Amino acid sequence: VQLQASGGGLVQAGGSLRLSCVASGRGFNTYGMGWFRQAPGKEREFVATIRWSGGGTYYADSVKGRFSITRDNAKNTVYLQMSSLRPEDTAVYYCAADSKGRWSRRENEYDYWGQGTQVTVSS
What does the chain look like in DSSP terms, one character per residue? Predict the structure, then answer.
């Protein structure tokens, strides 16, 4: 499975962006999917995850109520809708796939990673 993330960019505080992650290969509709981010000088951190069916989601406290993770299994795509963006949301955002279909906050439970897309929020 290969993952291609896109949709990052420069946005003002309070603005919105939608990230997309397209998966190639078979089995996407059985994979749990997650978004993580890494800010300059910081460790990568969990953002959001969605179960293989789309029936379960989980968010980091820092983004709860502002970000929404969804998926379209027919398009092999997972989305991260980001609203009310803050400068502290600035980071490289990575999508990841868990072949066991879980929704997990743990990086080591993900088997495949995308290349990352830069999100910069100006104040």
Answer: -EEEEE--EEEETT--EEEEEEEESS-GGG-EEEEEEE-TTS--EEEEEE-TTS--EEE-TTTTTTEEEEEEGGGTEEEEEE-S--GGG-EEEEEEEETT----S-GGG--EE---EEEEEE-
Q: Which of 29, 30, 24 is nearest to 5 (CA)?
A: 24
Summarize pLDDT for 10-30 with one digit per residue, the tens: 999 999 999 999 999 888 889
What is the Cα–Cα distance from 34 to 104, expressed in whole angstroms? Answer: 7
Hunting for tokens 């078979």 — which residue is that? 26
pLDDT in tens, 48-65: 999 988 789 999 999 999
